[in-house]
Amino acid sequence: MRFLGISVSICVAILWSGAALAQTAYLEGHVFNKRSGTPIEGAVVVIRENVALGPVPILLAEDVTDGNGFYQTSVTTTFPVAVIEVFCRTPRGVVVGGASSAPLQDDVIRRRDIYLEIPQRVDECLEAQPGDIPPFRS
């Protein structure tokens, strides 16, 4: 019986310590057209967990770039690293930007600029449609 009590105590301690390690980190940057170097307006920037703990990764934050291609968001999580992905619907279809990882630290701003390989004359994204962005858990 004593063994069961020790196991429960250890489990509770691990769960409590995990909650205590939650941190708020900040991510910002720009999204650019890789070919022309111009900023891209309207790109959807998705911040997700680095490790999927199931079939669908956990969504930590989401933002849409402004006229300067700028995005800015904060995440509160216990994960030490996040993945940043960018989605852009163009007249030719959906472009998914290469993922970038960012270490997350409490009260630290991480800057990640993303370069999308899209048609040279495209400088803004069309509004995202259902199915453009994969499903995430929140």
Can you describe this structure?
The chain has 138 residues and is mostly beta strands. It has one helix at residues 2-20; strands spanning 23-33, 44-49, 59-64, 70-77, 81-90, 93-96, 100-103, 109-111, 114-116. Strands 2, 3, 5, 6 and 7 form a five-stranded antiparallel β-sheet that branches. Strands 1, 4, 8 and 9 form a four-stranded mixed β-sheet that branches. A hairpin with a 2-residue loop joins strand 5 (81-90) and strand 6. The longest helix has 19 residues, at 2-20. The termini are far apart. Residues 1-20 have low confidence and may be disordered.
Which terms would index this structure?
five-stranded antiparallel sheet, disordered N terminus, globular, 9 strands, mainly beta
Can you describe this structure in just a few lines?
By secondary structure, this protein is mainly beta. It has one helix at residues 2-20; strands at 23-33, 44-49, 59-64, 70-77, 81-90, 93-96, 100-103, 109-111, 114-116. β5 (81-90) and β6 form a beta hairpin.
